C-alpha cells in the first residue's frame, strides 16, 4: 500500500531490534522509537513514521505497542507482529517481575519503605510537571485551561467515571474542531 | 476463585486500554479506584510504590499494569493483565494497518489527535493532582518534594531518573 520500497524483514531482526529499543527506554520508549526505526534501521522514512505514529496514537492501547505490531505486520505479517510485541514486552516484563519480587521482599524494611514514599512524591511531581510542560507548549492556552478545568471538575470533584467523561468529551471536541475547520475554509489538510 | 480474578483483571484492563488517552498515566486514578478502593487487592502504599518501580525500570510505560497484575495474582496475573491491556488493542492495530491506507487516514488521525491533546493534558493534570494528594497527604516534607520535583523538571534538563533517585535518598534520610 505504501508507495515506495516493499521491504521484508525477518521476525528475528524485528524481535531483536524492538527488544533493544524497549530495554534502552528508561522513562518511556517512544522518545527512542524515531531514532531506532527511522535513523538507525531506515525501516520507514520520516513521512511514513509520522503516519504510522499518528494512527498508533489514536488507537486504544499503548502507542509504542500499536506502532510495533503495525510495523511488524507490514514487514513480516503475523510473525513480524508477534516478534515486535514480544520484543517490546518480554524482557521488560521479566525485569519488572524481578523488581516486584525484590520490592515485596524488602518493603517491610523501614528505610526501603521511606525511600519509596520519597520516590512516589517525586513520581507525582513528574506527572504534574509533564502536564504543565505540555500545557505550556499549547498554542491556545485558554482552550487548554478550559479543558483542564472541566476534566478536573468532572473527575476529581464530581467523581464521574473516566469512560463517561471521554464518551462525552471526545466526540464533542471532534465535532467542534470539524466545524471550526469548515468555518476557516480549511479542508482539514494534512499536517 | 483465582480464575475469576484473572478474568476480571483481563477485562478490566482491556477496558482501561480504551480509556488510555495520551498514555496509561491518564487512567491511573481510575485503576487506583478499582484495585485499591473497590477490590482492596492492592494496598495504597503498594500501588504507588509499584508505579514508581515501573517508572524506574526500562520498557513501555504501560508495563505498569504488569506490576499491578503481579501484585494481585502473581506471575500469571501480571501476564494476563498485560495481555488485557495490549492484546485486543494490538489486534485492532493490525486490522487497521492491513485494511486501511495509512496515508488517507492521516487526515482523520491528525484531526482526532488534535482533539485529544487538550483532553490528554487535562487527564494527566487531574491524575497527577490525585496522586500527589494521595501520596503527600498532610506531610510538609512530601509536599515539598513534589513541588521541588515540578520546579526542577520544568526548569532544568535533569533526567527523571536522577530526580527519582533524589527522592529515594531524601525519603530514606529525612522522613
Task: Give structural notes.
The complex is a heterodimer of chains A (191) and B (175). Chain A has seven helices and no strands. Chain A is an all-alpha fold and 191 residues long. Chain A has three domains: 1-106, no CATH class; 108-136; 138-191, no CATH class. In chain A, helix 1 crosses helix 4. The longest helix of chain A is centred in the middle third of the chain and has 44 residues, at 63-106. Chain B has a domain at 2-101. Helices cover 82% and strands 0% of the residues of chain B. In chain B, helix 1 crosses helix 4 (64-99) and helix 6 runs antiparallel to helix 7 (160-174). The mean pLDDT of chain B is 92. Classes of the chains: A mainly alpha (191), B mainly alpha (175). At the A-B interface, helix 1, helix 3, helix 4, helix 5 and helix 6 of A face helix 1, helix 2, helix 3, helix 4 and helix 5 of B.
Keywords for this structure?
heterodimer, A: 191 residues, mainly alpha, 3 domains, B: 175 residues, 0% strand, globular
Radius of gyration of chain B: 18 Å
Helix and strand content put the structural class of chain B at mainly alpha
- Element pattern of chain A in H and E: HHHHHHH
Assign an overall shape of chain B: globular
Mean pLDDT over all positions of chain A: 89
- Please provide the count of β strands of chain A: 0
Low-pLDDT residue spans of chain B? none
- What's the number of helices of chain B? 7
